[in-house]
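Class, discuss our next protein.
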Amino acid sequence: MTNSRSLPGLEARCERGTVTLYILGLCVAVIFLGGLSLDLWRVVAVRRDLAAMADGAAAAAADGVDEGALRRGEIRLDPDRSLLLASENLEAQSDYGMVDATSVETRGTVVTVTLRSSVSFTLLGVFLAGGQFDVSAAASAEPRRRV
């Protein structure tokens, strides 16, 4: 007669290390999610800073009114003067060092300042070595006619 029961202790020996592998996998998942949330939070913070800088630069560039056109009763921006005012404003800001690229476009009475930066992975870099997020922000402004 054969016994269908397994030998005592054999079942326990087959499952040894399962909890360790489960905990190890859980730790890797938590580190990945923590890295993702940390790096995304850094991207949001950099995006917010870029937007604030672009707003200030666009407002400054909107002061670059073409004086000759203004004397004729027209409101038009001087592209060179707007670029100069935007550049001076950006260079005066403390976070300007993080900006990788700057674009100032003038179309009629509207000036648009676009800033670009990149944020390197920190904790997420453990899984995705050498990666980075590209971040950009743009702001537009135009001079107001005073009545």
Remarks:
- The longest helix spans residues 18-61.
- The two ends are 108 Å apart (CA to CA).
